[in-house]
Amino acid sequence: MTGDHDGTTARTVRVLGAPLDLGANRRGVDMGPSAIRYADIEAELAAAGINCTDAGDLSVPRLETSSATSGETTRNANYLDEIGQVTETLATEVAGTIDEGAVPLVLGGDHAVAMGSMFGAARNAEDGIGVIWFDAHGDYNTPETSPSGNVHGMPLAAAHGRGEFADVEWADTPAVSEENTVLVGIRSLDDEERVALRESEATVFTMREIDECGITAVVEDALEIATDGVDGIHVSLDLDWLDPTVVPGVGTPVRGGVNYREAHAALELVAERDRESDLLRSIDVVEVNPILDRDNRTAEVAAELAASAFGKRIL
Length: 315
Ligand SMILES: NC(=[NH2+])NCCC[C@H](N)C(=O)O
Ligand SMILES: [Mn+2]
Ligand SMILES: [Mn+2]
Hints:
Pathway: Nitrogen metabolism; urea cycle; L-ornithine and urea from L-arginine: step 1/1
Structural class: alpha/beta
CATH superfamily: Ureohydrolase domain
Oligomer: single chain
Pfam family, one: Arginase
Largest sheet: 8 strands, parallel
Number of helices: 10
Number of domains: 1
Strand order of the largest sheet: 2-1-3-8-7-4-5-6
Bound molecules: arginine, manganese (II) ion
Order of helices and strands: EHHEHEHEHEHEHHEHEH
Keywords: Arginine metabolism, Hydrolase, Manganese, Metal-binding
InterPro entries: Arginase (IPR014033), Ureohydrolase (IPR006035), Ureohydrolase_dom_sf (IPR023696), Ureohydrolase_Mn_BS (IPR020855)
């Protein structure tokens, strides 16, 4: 558990910028942390009654100066070694933040940063952690199955130690419990990724389940499954979870996503459950690409959703 907290004692949040873009094949996502700060995440969190400190950005190798040639060192997982250097540092920061009794809010960067967040969140979690993965994509490829070689399509499979990731010690995170992993809002899977997800013990709520049961019922179920028997959960929010009409600034948009209110409803439920039972260990908010955005809209939505996850309410 991450400390006592009954709704009156506010959470302390530590913002960690992770401007990584080596996991995606479209540049610009490295500017995500700046854009989300520009959207005034601190004011949004203050409105949620949150004490917030900003630890700045991790240093990240630049593509321009990187000596790695994609694919050569690690088969079909571009820049995997460089990404590992970043996520190892991030994991240490995340674990340290949790030790201090604060909640790390990781601002991506591409979704590969979640490997570091989960690794750090799982450290010192005796009973393991659950994960709720809000995304259009499964991010369940491995180097063997990925059609793109982009590591941002692999972080969840990496945490579960699938395929080649079983031998990557900074990625494989046994304390991330597969049966406590829940994906929500999925609508784009590659063929082999679909097979891998079906085989896994993770629960997948696709857009179809949201259509049928509504976002509230789905997220309540997700919280139930993710928190069962573990020390807490990591929440990973890929902005492409939302419909591209709401968030134009993402690199891999997929139509048919959740709308603005559904997204808030989901994260408000996370906050509500956290108030009751103190389950939130860490959050990441990823894949905001300001180059593709319009008027910083996607970063604003990212900041607002983070505030909802930490308890900002309408009334
Ligand atoms: N975090 C993301 N936006 N992931 C997109 C992944 C897209 C595709 N499934 C791939 O593996 O290349
Ligand atoms: Mn995605
Ligand atoms: Mn993703």
